[in-house]
C-alpha cells in the first residue's frame, strides 16, 4: 500500500529519508550527509556493490525534495517487488543476509568507508538475493575507531542465528518482539552451555553481553580505556564475525510439514490433475503478483514463478520455508520469495506508532492467491468460520484458487480425531455459500482419486 509522503518507517536517520510522490519511491539525501555520499560515490563503492548485486541501484533525479530546507539531493532507488522482515525469514535467509552485510562492510573498508549501521531491516531479498537497500548506510572511515555497528550486527544477526541453530529455530520470532535485535544478555542466558566452548560465540555474544552489563549506566569516561582499531583490526573483526555466522548450521528436520511432499494425500493422477488445474488458473488470472498461502516447500509456487509471476510463498512451518528458500537459491529463481507466516496470527504493524514495520495486510493485496490444502487447517484446526475466512482472503487478493477438503478426507479426519466436531456448516454447500458472498465461483473441479475439490474464483 503506497501512501503519499514520508514513509512511516523512515524517520530515525538524520542523513535522509524515503518518501512516495505520485506513486514513485524517492530518497531525500540531506545536506548533513553530502560528504559521506560523495565519498562513497567517488570511491567507486556504489558501482562495485551494484555490480556484485549487494546494493539496490539508485539514480539521482531532478525532482523536488520533500523537505527542501535540509535537502541536498534526491535519488530514486530501484523498486522492490516486496518488503519482508527478519522475523519472516527462514534460518538460511537470515544467515545469507548476515553474510551479505559483512561482504558489504569488507568492500566498504577497502575504499575508506564503513557501514554506520548493520540493521537487518536494511536488507531485502531482491530477485532472489539479499541486498542492502539503504544507500545512506555508509560513512567515511574514522581512523582508529571501532566499528560503530558491531553491537547492532550481533543483536540483529548473530544472536538470533545462534539461538535458532543451537536452541530452537522458532526463537527467530524474538526479532518480532525486539525490533533492535535480540538483547545479548538474553541470548547469552538462553544459549546452551556448550556455546561457551565456541570461541566466536564466547567473544561476540557471551563476553560482549558481560561487557555491556559491566558498563551499563556508567558515564562514557568511566567505561574503560578507549578502544582503538586500525584497518587490519577492523578487517579481522569482520573475518571473525563471518566465521561465527558461517559456523552456524540448521537442518530443516523435525518440523511438522517439512517432509510433506513425501507423505502427501494425492495419488499420481490426483497430483497431476491438481498441477494442471493450478496451471490453468494462472493462465486465466494472468497475475503479476501471487501469494501462495500455505505453500509448504513451494511445488505450486514454482508454477507461477517459473512463468515470471512474482510469488511470495508463505508457510507456517520453519522447515518447509527453509527447504523452499534453499531450492529457490539453488535454482537462482528471481521471482520466488519464501517467507514465514502464521495466517492465524499474521505479522502486525509494529514499532513506533505501529507503522515502523508494515502489517501483512498493508503489504498487499496480491493479484492472485493460492490457498491449497489450507482451508481445513484454519476452519477446523483454528476454529475460523468459513465466512470470516472468505472475507479475509478477499482482502488479500482478487483472483483465488482454493481447495476444499471435506471431513471425509484423511487430513481432515486427523484434525477431528482429538476434538469434538463443532463444525456443522463445514461441508461443500456451506463452503460455497460462504465464499459466494465475496467471490464469483468460476469453477469447481474434483481432484481425481480424492474427496477434494479445487475452486477458482474472482472477487466481487
How would you describe this protein?
The protein is of the alpha/beta class. 37% of the residues lie in helices and 18% in strands. The chain contains 15 helices and 16 strands. It has helices spanning 34-43, 45-52, 91-110, 150-166, 174-177, 184-190, 199-215, 231-246, 268-285, 301-305, 318-331, 375-381, 386-396, 410-416, 428-435; strands at 5-6, 16-21, 24-30, 58-60, 71-77, 113-115, 123-126, 129-132, 138-140, 289-293, 310-315, 336-340, 366-371, 397-404, 439-446, 453-459. The strands form four sheets. It has a seven-stranded mixed beta sheet with strand order 12-11-10-13-14-16-15. Strands 1-2-3-5-4 form a five-stranded antiparallel beta sheet, with no helix packed on it. A two-stranded antiparallel ribbon has the order 6-9. Helix 11 (318-331) links the parallel strand 11 and strand 12 (336-340). Helix 3 (91-110) runs antiparallel to helix 4, helix 4 (150-166) runs parallel beside helix 6 (184-190) and helix 6 (184-190) crosses helix 7 (199-215). The longest helix has 20 residues, at 91-110. It starts with a strand and ends with a strand. The relative contact order is 0.09. The mean pLDDT is 94.
Uncertain segments: none
Largest sheet: 7 strands, mixed
Radius of gyration: 24 Å
| Tally of helical segments | 15
Give me the side-by-side strand order of the main sheet.
Answer: 12-11-10-13-14-16-15
**Share in β-strands:** 15-25%
Mean pLDDT: 94
Number of strands: 16
- Compute the separation of the termini in Å: 20 Å
Shape: globular
Helicity, in percent? Answer: 25-40%
Helix and strand content put the structural class at: alpha/beta
Amino acid at each position: 500500500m503506497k501512501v503519499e509522503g514520508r514513509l512511516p518507517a523512515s524517520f530515525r536517520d538524520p542523513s535522509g529519508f524515503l518518501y512516495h510522490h505520485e506513486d514513485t519511491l524517492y530518497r531525500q539525501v540531506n545536506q548533513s550527509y553530502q560528504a559521506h555520499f560523495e565519498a562513497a560515490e567517488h570511491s567507486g563503492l556504489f558501482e562495485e556493490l551494484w555490480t556484485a548485486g549487494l546494493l539496490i541501484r539508485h539514480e539521482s533525479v531532478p525532482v523536488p525534495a520533500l523537505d527542501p530546507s535540509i535537502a541536498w539531493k534526491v535519488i530514486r532507488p530501484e523498486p522492490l517487488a516486496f518488503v519482508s522482515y527478519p522475523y519472516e525469514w527462514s534460518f538460511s535467509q537470515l544467515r545469507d543476509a548476515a553474510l551479505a552485510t559483512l561482504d558489504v562492510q569488507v568492500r566498504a573498508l577497502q575504499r575508506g568507508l564503513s557501514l554506520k549501521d548493520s540493521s537487518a531491516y536494511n536488507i531485502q531479498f531482491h530477485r532472489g538475493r539479499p541486498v542492502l537497500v539503504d544507500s545512506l548506510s555508509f560513512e567515511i572511515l574514522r581512523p582508529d575507531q571501532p566499528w560503530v555497528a558491531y553491537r547492532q550486527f550481533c543483536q540483529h544477526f548473530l544472536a538470533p542465528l545462534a539461538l535458532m541453530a543451537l536452541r530452537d529455530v522458532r526463537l527467530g520470532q524474538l526479532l518480532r518482539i525486539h525490533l533492535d535485535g535480540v538483547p545479548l544478555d538474553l541470548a547469552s542466558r538462553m544459549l546452551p552451555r556448550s556455546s561457551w566452548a565456541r570461541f566466536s560465540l564466547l567473544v561476540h555474544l557471551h563476553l560482549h553481553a558481560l561487557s555491556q552489563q559491566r558498563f551499563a549506566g556508567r558515564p562514557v569516561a568511566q567505561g574503560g580505556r578507549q578502544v582503538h582499531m586500525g584497518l587490519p583490526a577492523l578487517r579481522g573483526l569482520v573475518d571473525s564475525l563471518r566465521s561465527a555466522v558461517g559456523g552456524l548450521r540448521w537442518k530443516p528436520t523435525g518440523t511438522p510439514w517439512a517432509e510433506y511432499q513425501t507423505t502427501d494425500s494425492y495419488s499420481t493422477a490426483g497430483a497431476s490433475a491438481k498441477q494442471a488445474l493450478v496451471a490453468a488458473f494462472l493462465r486465466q488470472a494472468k497475475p503479476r503478483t501471487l501469494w501462495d498461502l500455505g505453500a509448504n516447500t513451494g511445488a505450486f509456487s514454482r508454477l507461477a514463478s517459473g512463468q515470471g509471476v512474482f510469488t511470495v510463498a508463505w508457510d507456517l512451518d520453519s522447515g518447509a520455508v527453509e527447504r523452499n528458500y534453499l531450492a529457490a537459491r539453488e535454482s537462482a529463481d528471481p521471482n520466488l520469495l519464501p517467507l514465514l507466516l502464521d495466517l492465524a496470527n499474521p505479522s502486525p504493524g509494529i514499532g513506533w506508532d505501529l507503522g515502523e514495520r508494515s502489517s501483512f495486510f498493508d503489504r498487499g493485496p496480491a493479484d492472485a492467491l493460492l490457498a491449497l490444502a489450507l482451508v481445513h487447517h484454519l476452519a477446523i484446526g483454528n476454529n475460523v468460520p468459513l465466512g470470516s475466512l472468505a472475507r479475509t482472503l478477499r482482502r488479500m487478493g482478487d483472483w483465488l484458487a482454493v481447495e476444499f477438503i471435506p471431513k471425509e478426507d484423511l487430513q481432515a479426519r486427523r484434525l477431528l480425531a482429538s476434538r469434538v466436531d463443532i463444525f456443522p456448516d463445514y461441508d461443500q454447500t456451506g463452503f460455497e455459500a460462504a465464499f459466494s458472498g465475496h467471490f464469483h465461483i468460476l469453477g469447481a473441479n474434483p481432484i481425481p482419486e480424492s474427496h477434494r475439490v479445487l475452486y477458482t474464483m474472482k472477487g466481487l
